[in-house]
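Researcher: Last one for today. Full complex below.
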Amino acid sequence: MDSTVGGVEWTSDDTSASEVSRSDKAREFYEEKIYKPAIVAWSDMRTRIGILLMSIYGLMAVVAIAGLWRAPTSSQAPERYMQPFQNWDYPLGSTASGVDIMALIIHSTDEMLLMILAGGVWATGLAVAVGTLAGYKGGTIDNVLMSFSDLVMAIPGLPLVIILAFTFNPENPIFVGIIININYWAGLGRSLRSQVLTIREESYVEASRTMGVSTPRILRKDVIPNLMPYITVNFVFAARYVVFASVGLFFLGVLPYTQANWGVTLQRAYSGGALFAPEAAHWLIAPMLAIGVLSLALILLGQGLDRVFNPRVRTRLAGESESTAADEEEDTFGGKVM
Amino acid sequence: MSNYYLRRTARVFVTIYLVATLTFGLIRLLPGGPYTQLRNQLLRQGMSPEEVEGRIQALQNINPNAPLHQQYIDYMAGFMQGNLGQSIHYQKPVAEILAQAAPWTIFIVGVSTVLVFAFGIVFGALQAYWEGSRFDKALTTLSISVMSIPFYVYAILLLYVLSYQMGVTPTAGTVGSDYRGEGLSVGFLISALQHAFLPILSYTVAEAGIQMLAMRGNSIQILGKDYVRVARLRGIADTRIATRYVARNAVLPMYTGFLLLLGFRLGGTVILEEIFSYTGLGYYLFDALNSNDYPLMMGTFLVITVTLVIGVYVADLTYGKIDPRVKSGESSEAF
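Model: Here's the assembly. Have a good evening.
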């Protein structure tokens, strides 16, 4: 197979690297790692919607940090229970105590994004480290790591998180994200391990091993790239879990907060009579929408990113000018797998 | 072969032992020690310090002034006899409260998990067979939109529409007040089902989409395998291919997901049961947390964990029946 077809392998080709200038290298890096993945990602409808929705949340976070929208305080709106889309100064209406609902939604976005980033990185990072090491090394290391994961998996997440939250009273969103995913990594690590078990027997891994390449390098260069699609998808799932669990815990009132956020708003609407009063329904629905759309964006992004990391889909979609003969052959061979 | 079952069973006990130890450690972690608040309260009521210590010791079977290892041994001995201490709030043994609560939680989690997998497997398989059809596309879109909403939002919405606005289903509790404390009867069962309907529905709706997509992906992958093609060429009946060759292999990876799911769902009952005021394990955990009832809190935590460990154990044993490879002992070469 031509080395240009693989796309990813091209940059690590050392023989030609000595002859190209630095700017060439930079341009090549841009082409291979940024431009082409971007085209593939953008060509997929789901990613496009996902990116669009995520940037709305990003924008909301920026607005919140820069203070472009008023912070939520009680009786800031002219009347209680203002209906949404009636007054454009208060587009989502107001609550029972006259708080601008738009302000409530906007001013918790930045912390939420930080939280899901921290939780996602923590869960997937630890899972990749444990899963690949256990799967690749085997033997005692595998036994020890997997027994530990099994123990961690045996503890139901939410009750543990609740007790930890009660004990530590975390306020920092990064800390909250990590606590929520405190044992999320175990299950993911286990399934990564079982995938590594098949990858470790591949001939190219064996070749690296016989050449005396160090274990961390084999894991980094040979094993983890193969797992990337799976890791990305699960990063998104971990992030989604952080959204669901954190809002749930704020709803229960387990986590401390300084400023009302989606979960707290949901709780106040729920206990403040929005269940009985139709004129307060928007108070309940606004935070629900904020949660739902954010997790929808995450899911769509996850499914779209799957394609970016899948080299076969990538060359076919990105390389109009490249010869795709080799790919087509591979595809027909692969049959219905795609 | 029997060796596998033996090892697996041994692991259950080791896990439960370790979790009990962890719980013991967690009690010590709690802010200001477990009984500071209660002790102050009792002292303020004019009890003598000796009496207070005696009360607290009776609550948890732990003498707070004994050395740590002695406390640990007392705690574990009590736990093994099924003694989880005395609830401060309810003035009843924790074990008694939880014995009443656990069946409800197991009922809800069990039924909804079975439903999730039934829907997921059937519809996911159909989607895979008609891949690219309008049915497939519509169901995929539906799954993605449905799974982006957490179960407690469904719970609140269903409660809002069906219970408060339409009055079709009860708003709280496990059974109607007429049947409380009574034995099994037809009325009791109907009332229990009515009360469990919304919790089960919201738990099922939120998760079915994910399993559907997983089953769809697995089945599509297996439909492309050579052995399925060979089976077709051999002229094996389509139904046999669908059930024996495709479905069986596609379900296997979902089994591991099932174990994880069980943990998330048992944990999620804290939120679910709170919304429906459904007096199961999760309800009491949260209740104990709010009333600073440490024995009840730790006891509930322990019982939820033990339930999960047993659930996973049962699932693991049946997994061996579906996939014979497990028993061969997958010890691999170490690098």
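The two ends of chain A are 20 Å apart (CA to CA). Residues 1-13, 316-338 of chain A have pLDDT under 50 and may be disordered.
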